Amino acid sequence: MPSAPSVSDLTAHLGYWLRYVSNHVSQAFARKVEAHGVTVAEWVLMRQLLEPDSLAPSRLAERMGMTRGAVTKLADRLIAKSLLTRAADPEDGRAQTLSLTRAGRALVPKLAALADANDAEFFASLAPKDRAALLRILKGIVATRGLKSLPVD
Predict the structure, then answer these.
(1) What is the pLDDT of residues 51-80, one digit of tens each?
(2) Among 57, 59, 67, which Cα is nearest to 88's?
């Protein structure tokens, strides 16, 4: 009778540990931003709109690695919350642009501070050189794998 193939332990995988930490970091951050009335995906979209005055939904979708339909759904939710506006593109009346409202623009720095605090909460135990090394390694994986979609969930 042939022996059963060996099966690696779940905890032997780097992916397991990355997901374990990521889930806890992400869930804690989600609770923090939801207390301000937005989801993580909405926060990511808002942060993408902080620097430009306005952006076409197609360009925003490209930046976020999402479909235009997904961006439209997020935009609709933010418009309903008075954090975003949609207007005709001044250069092409057939196209639209998205912009943060005054309330949206004021909320972004508050949410960014929550992101900073969440990082500090989870990674403060790392020595600065270890934190820098982890960041370098993770960015290297993103670059090597050609990952484009921003983490929104």
Answers:
(1) 888 899 999 999 998 999 999 999 999 999
(2) 57
Q: In a 3-state reduction of DSSP, which class is residue 101? A: coil
The model's pTM is 0.86
Element spanning 135, H or E: helix 128-145
Tokens linked to 17: 């540990």
Helix or strand or coil: residue 85? Answer: strand
Fold classification of 13-145 (topology level): Arc Repressor Mutant, subunit A (1.10.10)
Q: Please list the residues that pair with 89 across neighbouring strands.
A: 92
The Cα 135–Cα 123 span in angstroms is: 11
Q: Which residues have a Cβ under 8 Å from the Cβ of 141 and sit 6 or more positions away?
A: 147
Question: How many C-beta atoms surround the C-beta of residue 110 within 10 A?
Answer: 10
Residue 27: the pLDDT is 95
Q: What is the DSSP pairing of strand 84-89 with strand 92-100?
A: antiparallel
CB neighbours of residue 46 within 10 Å = 23
Q: How far apart are CA 12 and CA 64, in angstroms?
A: 32
Domain ranges across the chain: 13-145
Evaluate whether 78 touches 105 at the Cβ level (below 8 Å). no
